[in-house]
Amino acid sequence: MQTLKKWFVRLLKFIVAAYVVICALLYFFQEKLIFLPQHLDKDYSFEFSGKYEEMIFDTSDGKELHGVLFSVKEPLGLIFILHGNAGSIAGWGKSAEVYTTANYDVFVLDYRGYGKSEGKITGTEQLFNDNQLVYDELKNKYGEEHIIVLGYSLGTGLAAQLASNNDPGLLVLQAPYYNMTAMMKERFPFVPTFLLKYKLATNEYLKECDIPVVIFHGKEDQVIDHSMSQALKNEFKDKVELILLEGQGHNGMTDNFTYLIELGKILQSYR
């Protein structure tokens, strides 16, 4: 009996130690789980159709952020895209044609460590400051009332935060999460949420948004369930328009026929 008790105590200690190690790894390496950047050489040549120019923004800590501006002759405004957690402008920039066809200029920013942008992501305030830096330069050219902030997946929390501290004409969220804490509870229910450095509380940011908000979400999304968008709609009934897309998963929303039709209506009414 005594031997069994000792064995049980040792097993319990092992489980606790393993749990602590797992939590520590998740805390210190969470950037590698959340952010999956594609790195591009500085001399990388993009293969985009239409007119575009590469833009560089200097941060206060001496890093260069890189973005691409897709332009049309007489734009109705600018769509500022904050993309998802994987890839780079090399892939995300291909969606720009959808919006330039609607006669909007499009700007896509690569976060730190993505594409040709320098540095690495170390916290939310850094991300927020970088986005604000770029937004400030763009609004000098376009005027805020002519800017639409659009976020996709990971970028939805960033887009909502940016809109909450500024006055763009419209906020569009594609496959948003309620907040990253909710995502963590869903993915890692055994890990205490205080370990999450990137709260990205979309629900809190929307409280400060005094602009129209449109949410698109695929009903077959297996990465971020559309119930998260429904929760945002339920909380902000009058502020948020929710459009659920039948048969749509997490990726490829910009090519969805219903999305294109509904987007066209929104852009028409927005003007």
Would you write up a description of this structure?
The chain is α/β, with parallel strands linked by helices. 40% of the residues lie in helices and 20% in strands. It has ten helices and ten strands. The chain has helices spanning 2-28, 30-34, 89-92, 96-100, 124-142, 154-164, 180-187, 202-207, 227-235, 257-270, and strands at 36-37, 51-58, 64-71, 78-82, 86-87, 105-110, 147-152, 170-174, 213-218, 240-245. The strands form two sheets. Strands 2-3-6-4-7-8-9-10 form an eight-stranded mixed beta sheet, with helices on both faces. The protein has a two-stranded parallel ribbon with strand order 1-5. β9 (213-218), α9 (227-235) and β10 form a beta-alpha-beta unit. The chain is globular and about 85 Å long. The protein starts with a helix and ends with a helix.
Summarize this structure as a short list of keywords or feature phrases.
alpha/beta, 10 helices, 8-stranded mixed β-sheet, globular, 10 strands, two-stranded parallel sheet, 271 residues, 40% helix, single chain
Summarize the structure.
The protein is an alpha/beta fold and 271 residues long. The chain contains ten helices and ten strands. Helix 9 links the parallel strand 9 (213-218) and strand 10 (240-245).
Radius of gyration: 21 Å
Distance between the termini: 79 Å
Arithmetic mean pLDDT: 93
Strand content is: 15-25%
Q: Helix and strand succession? A: HHEEEEEHHEHEHEHHEHEH
Q: Name the poorly predicted regions.
A: none
- Shape by Cα distribution: globular
Number of strands: 10
Q: Helix- and strand-based class?
A: alpha/beta
Provide the spatial order of strands within the biggest beta sheet: 2-3-6-4-7-8-9-10
Characterize the biggest β-sheet.
8 strands, mixed
Query: Percent helix among the residues?
Result: 25-40%
